[in-house]
Amino acid sequence: MRGSIGKEHVHLLLSCPPTLAPSKILQYLKGRSSKLLQEEFQELRKRYWGQHLWAPGYFCRTVGTVTEEIIKEYIENQGKERNDDTFRIEE
After folding, report:
1. pLDDT digit string (tens) for 31-66?
2. 43-48 contacts: CB < 8 A, separation 24 or more?
3. Is 38 part of a structural domain of the chain?
4. Is 91 inside a domain boundary?
5. Domain count, the chain
6. What Å distances lie between residue 79 and 5, 8, 14, 74, 83, CA to CA?
7. H/E element holding 3?
8. Which residues sit opposite 10 in a β-bridge?
9. Is the predicted pLDDT of residue 84 greater than 70, yes or no?
10. 75 domain-assigned
11. Which domain holds residue 28?
12. 34 domain-assigned
């Protein structure tokens, strides 16, 4: 498994059997991680009492025309500044 955490999103590269629906995998991951985070950080439990820690949506993509190595590289480079000037948005 590979992953990176951004300010407003999380990237994960998972391998799973085709019999598992992506929606069920994400439901489990969001539920379990929410429970573990709220157990470890009591301030989250107070803040999100009766609410959802994670947003309801997700984006899922299978590895197809892009190799797994390219996706791993993309995830590992999240949050790093780009060194080229081809396209950049600055605030």
Report:
1. 898 889 888 998 888 888 777 888 888 888 777 777
2. none
3. yes
4. no
5. 1
6. 9, 11, 20, 10, 12
7. strand 2-5
8. 5
9. no
10. no
11. 17-58
12. yes
